[in-house]
Amino acid sequence: MILAIAILNIIVYKLREFHEAKYNDKDKKVVLLPPGQICRRFSLNEILCATHNFDDKYLIGQGGSAKVYKGLVDDGATSVAVKRLSFISKQAGGGSVFLSEIEMLSKFRHSHLVSLIGYCDELDEMILVFEYVPSGTLSDHLHRSFEKGYESLSWIQRLRICIGVAQGLNYLHTGTSTHQRVIHRDVKSTNILLDDNLEAKIADFGISKIVEANQGYTYVSTVVRGTFGYMDPAYFLTGRLTRKSDVYAFGIVLFEVLSGRRAVDFSLDDEQLGLAGWAEHCVKEGRINEIIDSDPKMQISQSSLLAFVKIACQCLNRKPSCRPTMAEIVVVLEFALSLQKNSDSTLVEGAVIASDSGQYSTAMEVVHGKDQNKPFQINHTRTTLSRKVCQILSTSIRALSG
Predict the structure, then answer these.
(1) Is residue 108 domain-shared with residue 212, that is, in the same domain?
(2) Are 142 and 126 in the same domain?
(3) Is 83 annotated in some ligand binding site?
(4) Cα–Cα dist 321/150, whole Å
(5) Same domain, 183 and 109
(6) Beta bridge partners of 180
(7) How far is CA 25 from CA 21, 29, 95, 100, 262, in A?
(8) Statement to judge: residues 51 and 180 lie in one domain
(9) Chosen domain end from 131, 147, 164
(10) Residue 281: which domain range?
(11) Can you give the pLDDT of all 402 residues of the chain as single tens digits?
């Protein structure tokens, strides 16, 4: 019996060594998956049947690291999205990305996070099976709506999408457990999926980081990874990753939603190439109307716009500690939505925000200043802000408690 146990321990040890050699990545702690205990494990045959042998007719998305197919499992009863890591990705350490997504999405569930159904790791394949989210990405709707056959998004629809993303990120940052926090590290419009009701779901957790909440410091030092145009400059320069790095990227998404422009557009001149710099410059110069998408559905009340732009600018603060938390962003975006929906009213009460430091402010104070109690006057027409209002906006953008 003792000999049998010893042999079994040796086998387990060798299997662990094999997995570590196959999936090891300096930037990611290896996580060995206990089959059947985390999520459903599909056979390769099930995956091939679901995707008709990875037929290109069922291809719904692709990038440098993976291809995504629409498939049917459980005898056609369930529509799924099948993400198949590419050979190049696997050779470049894609195993850690594979394990990260399984670990992350098996532990953390939220209505604004894409749901993981299962995985397949047979015959050197690395495949993830997600719920099928039918209406494409936020990027598709903002930049490729004509090509994809989507209707343009109204301002209220855009606000609701932003609120959903902010709620999902807030859950990752604060609500997963008392011991762990998650930093997504790749927040961008192509990683925001939309369902039939245009409800947002955050996707792609391959480079996310789990941070212990009681570690005694607010950042984790790591190899810099992310997407050009959305990457936090402070993280890029120092390698110190914080939750505020996600906040910065989300600020880019907010301006992307407002303007309909891409985070980076190489077809434009140097001044307008990067959305972050251009949007901030327009705010400082009092030219906010130039940022707004020209789509006819983008009818925005002045007060809703002001609240939205101020919180978006705060997200892009060069000092991470001066950026708002996702909880604060959620409340201000909900406030902006209320202002837009109640544009026949003269006053919308500001919701209370509790910051990490225990200080309290209101959404009204965030967009109007703590020393001002004057309510917003609603403008029923599409806004082009006066220079005076723009000056107030650009000079009063300040940090909420970090």
Answers:
(1) no
(2) no
(3) yes
(4) 38
(5) no
(6) 212
(7) 9, 7, 8, 11, 31
(8) no
(9) 131
(10) 138-396
(11) 444 444 444 443 344 444 434 433 333 333 344 444 468 899 999 999 999 999 999 998 887 678 899 999 988 889 999 999 876 555 555 567 788 778 778 888 899 999 999 999 888 888 999 999 999 999 999 998 878 888 899 999 999 999 999 999 999 998 766 577 889 999 999 999 999 999 999 998 888 888 876 654 466 667 788 899 999 999 999 999 999 999 999 999 999 999 999 999 998 888 889 999 999 999 988 888 889 998 878 889 999 999 999 999 999 999 999 999 999 999 999 999 999 998 754 334 444 444 444 444 555 555 555 554 433 332 333 333 334 433 433 333 333 333
| Integer CA distances (angstroms), 311 to 57, 330, 394, 396, in order | 42, 10, 12, 11
**Same domain membership, residue 280 and residue 157:** yes
Report if residue 367 sits inside a domain: yes
Place of tokens 């702690």: 29
CATH of the domain at 315: 1.10.510.10
- Residue 281: other Cβ atoms inside 10 A: 14
| Torsion over CA: 74, 130, 39, 125 (sign) | positive
> Which of the 8 DSSP states describes residue 383?
P
Where among 65, 98, 131 does a domain terminate? 131
Alpha-carbon distance values, 264 to 44, 139, 189, 255, 271 (Å): 38, 12, 12, 12, 11
Kindly report the CATH number assigned to the domain that includes residue 79.
Answer: 3.30.200.20
How many distinct structural domains can be found in the chain?
A: 2
Q: Cα–Cα distance between 83 and 51 in angstroms, integer?
A: 11
Long-range CB contacts (within 8 A, 24+) of 211-218: 211/180, 211/181, 211/182, 211/183, 212/179, 212/180, 212/181, 213/177, 213/178, 213/179, 213/180, 213/181, 214/179, 218/242
Same domain, 204 and 120: no
User: Token pair 């749901």 is at which residue?
Assistant: 115
Report, as residue numbers or ranges, the catalytic residues: 186
* CA atoms within 13 A of residue 1's CA, in its CB half-sphere: 0
Nearest to 29 by CA among 209, 244, 299: 209
> Within a domain: residue 14?
no
Sign of the C-alpha dihedral computed for residues 324, 400, 239 and 270 taken in this order: positive
